[in-house]
């Protein structure tokens, strides 16, 4: 009955349903594991000053880049069939080490700050590897129909994770125990990966399509091949630019949200932001089931990659004129749910047309290092525009954000048009 309902609500075909469902469970588990840790991480900055937080963001960028370099080196040495599950086993093991440190088995200096950086790296890395696995096994036509549905698994996981922290795990349970629980949860994808490999092989044989035989291959032995692929591939540079501009909008929204909520007490802010999270993930699920695949198949990637940026550009100007709390939070909900349900899966479809070097080496560089570099760059830009140097008020800062959103939309439009043209959409 559930299978028939999913087939009716989505554009997934019966022969793809098992793979789509297991991919759904896969990303659900990953996102739930991260969202269990996220409240633990986000509770720490309240005890730090602004300089310490900015320093942590900078450390996150530096160590994210180092992590990508190390990952690329390891990816050059082993087969893909071992690389993907190895990433999740590694993170699971790392959380066990943190658990032992919290239990006093050994000492990690400044463990809270180290933990903050490590979780920030994990938050992007595990999802990047997941989507590399997906884009290597679903072709571009399947991605347009299936990725929106898979994304809803992330949104449901994002709801379940905080529920576990809030209602199941006792507030007096320490960080170490939570890490042990997450470490165990991260091992669930391992059998799912091997099961998916068998499903993808059957799908490949059925479709006579070599797209899904990637797990029997190895990547280039050159650990720098991912970066070389990046600098000579216009599409990858375009995707990196798209993500860099996305981080700008995220930073400006964070700044705006912080400003409009200043008048509220901390408890009220927590309730408001909790409601924003719930509404965002609920809307993402609705869009993922009913809208995403229909938008991508009917209008192509030129529309799905640019619609959210252009929408934000218009409404940022309206907020600049009248920065009411409900308008800021409403647009924040639309921005995030639009990104999760429409922009992100559309962006991942672009990777269905590149080779394995780009999927498994260049992609983490873009998703992790470029993303975190953008965070650091734009947070300092905003600081300089505000109290740091220019002392601009909220309205002109939002105008600047609107201009950046237009540029973001143009980049998405160009990426989408090129993809649609190449694939005769």
TrEMBL record:
Keywords: Membrane, Transmembrane, Transmembrane helix. Signal peptide: none annotated. The keyword Nucleus does not apply. Gene3D superfamilies: MFS general substrate transporter like domains (1.20.1250.20). The chain crosses the membrane at residues 20-37, 57-75, 82-102, 114-134, 146-169, 175-196, 236-255, 307-329, 369-390, 396-416. InterPro entries: MFS_trans_sf (IPR036259). This is MFS transporter. It comes from Algibacter mikhailovii.
């Amino acid at each position: 009955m559930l299978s028939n309902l999913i087939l009716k609500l989505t554009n997934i075909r019966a022969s793809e349903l098992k793979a789509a469902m297991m991919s759904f469970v896969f990303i659900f588990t990953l996102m739930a594991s991260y969202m269990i840790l996220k409240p633990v991480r986000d509770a720490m900055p309240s005890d730090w000053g602004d300089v310490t937080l900015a320093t942590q963001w900078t450390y996150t960028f530096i160590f994210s880049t180092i992590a990508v370099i190390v990952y690329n080196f390891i990816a050059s040495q082993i087969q893909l069939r071992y690389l993907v599950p190895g990433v999740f086993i590694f993170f699971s093991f790392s959380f066990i080490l943190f658990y032992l440190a919290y239990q006093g088995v050994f000492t990690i200096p400044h463990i809270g700050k180290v933990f903050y950086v490590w979780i920030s790296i994990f938050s992007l890395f595990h999802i990047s590897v997941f989507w590399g696995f997906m884009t290597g096994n679903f072709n571009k036509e399947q991605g347009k129909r299936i990725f929106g549905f898979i994304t809803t698994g992330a949104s449901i996981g994002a709801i379940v994770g905080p529920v576990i922290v809030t209602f199941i795990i006792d507030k007096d349970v320490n960080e170490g125990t939570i890490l042990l629980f997450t470490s165990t949860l991260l091992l669930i994808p391992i059998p799912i990966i091997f099961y998916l490999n068998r499903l993808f092989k059957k799908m490949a044989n059925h479709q006579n399509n070599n797209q899904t035989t990637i797990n029997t291959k190895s990547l280039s032995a050159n650990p720098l091949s991912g970066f070389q692929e990046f600098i000579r591939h216009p599409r990858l540079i375009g995707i990196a630019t798209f993500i860099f501009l996305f981080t700008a909008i995220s930073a400006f929204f964070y700044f705006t949200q912080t400003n409009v909520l200043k008048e509220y007490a901390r408890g009220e802010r927590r309730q408001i932001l909790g409601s924003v999270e719930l509404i965002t993930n609920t809307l993402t699920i609705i869009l993922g089931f009913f809208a995403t695949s229909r938008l991508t198949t009917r209008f192509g990637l030129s529309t799905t990659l640019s619609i959210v940026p252009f929408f934000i550009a218009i409404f940022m100007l309206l907020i600049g004129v009248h920065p009411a709390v409900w308008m800021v939070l409403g647009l924040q909900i639309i921005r995030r749910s639009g990104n999760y349900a429409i922009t992100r899966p559309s962006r991942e479809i672009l990777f269905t047309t590149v080779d394995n070097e780009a999927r498994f080496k260049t992609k983490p560089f873009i998703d992790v290092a470029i993303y975190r570099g953008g965070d650091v760059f734009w947070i300092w830009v905003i600081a300089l525009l505000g109290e740091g140097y220019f002392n601009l008020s909220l309205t002109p800062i939002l105008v600047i954000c609107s201009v950046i959103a237009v540029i973001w939309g143009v980049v998405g439009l160009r990426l989408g048009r090129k993809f649609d043209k190449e694939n005769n959409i």
